[in-house]
Amino acid sequence: MKRAGTYITIYIIAITALFIYVLFPSEKFGEFIAYHAASGMSGIAVEINDVKPTLLPGIRLKKIHFLLQPTGLPIAGIKGIKVSPHYTSIFKAGKGFNFKSGLFGGNISGHTIFLEKNSITVINLNEINIDRIEALGLLTEQQLSGLLSGKIDYTLSSAAGREALATLKLINGALTLSEPFFTIESISFEKIESEILLSNDIIRIKSCTLKGAQIDGTLSGGITLKTPLEKSRLTLSGMFKPHHTLLASLSEEVSAAIFQQERPGTKGFSFTIGGTFDKLDFNSRK
Questions:
Q1: How big is the chain by its Cα radius of gyration, in Å?
Q2: Which end of the chain is more exposed for a tag (fewer CB within 10 A), N or C?
């Protein structure tokens, strides 16, 4: 039994070494991950400064920075990500790994599988505090807060390029406007649920629904990604319907004007958002 236990121990150590040094060759693996991560984000470079093996099969990526291109301006940083083998990849074609990390008060986890002509990544987001994401402040003067959760299915292939489907939910948030709308400076909401498609440099907002005590709304349309990102072009449209709690905070004149414009039985007011992230063009009509 003692000899059998020794053999098992040696086997486990050998398997651990195999995963660490064959599937995860230290600095080369860090460069590999940085390259593939950046390829999925237009206008953003990924820098990994340290790669260390862990006791269990896997490695830890440390001091990860996301840089806005072409300026190299830092937009976000992560202290560390734990990466381990995706065990189903042992029995299937291709290689894969799992990843997990704390991120802006929440956490992110998922896996990536590399096949012959494409890679498949699944990302799970759990209660990410988005007002801590510095990149949002670089894209637009509007301030958005809340806890973001959801799932992203991402495929990178030599034939079709990059494609993704994101199902996201933002709860307990607020939108602070750079310029007041009527006299409204900030709008709070209970939740925003959205389904978003990515095809190379085109983002299509298939559906986006906002629910709150102050306002309900919908949004759809497209975003064409550009470099730099703040020059990306928006073609969005939607509807919003203010509630009495919001109108009560306005002056009687403004509140009465809104009620006069809104037709009974309608879904509210329609609007369009054009321009770029750094220069939004917002128009509303009844």
A1: 23
A2: N
pTM: 0.75
Tally of residues, the chain: 286
Which helix or strand (DSSP H or E) is residue 158 part of? Answer: none
- Contact between 35 and 47 (Cβ < 8 Å): no
Distance (Å, rounded) from C-alpha 136 to C-alpha 144? 8
| Beta strand extents in 54-105 (DSSP E only) | 59-68, 73-85, 95-103
pLDDT in tens, the chain (286 residues): 444 444 444 444 444 444 444 444 455 556 656 655 655 555 667 777 777 767 666 777 777 777 666 666 666 677 788 888 776 645 555 578 888 888 888 998 998 888 888 888 898 999 999 888 776 766 667 788 999 999 999 898 888 888 999 999 999 999 887 777 667 788 899 999 999 999 988 999 999 999 998 889 999 999 998 877 788 899 999 998 888 777 776 655 455 555 555 555 556 788 898 999 888 888 876 6
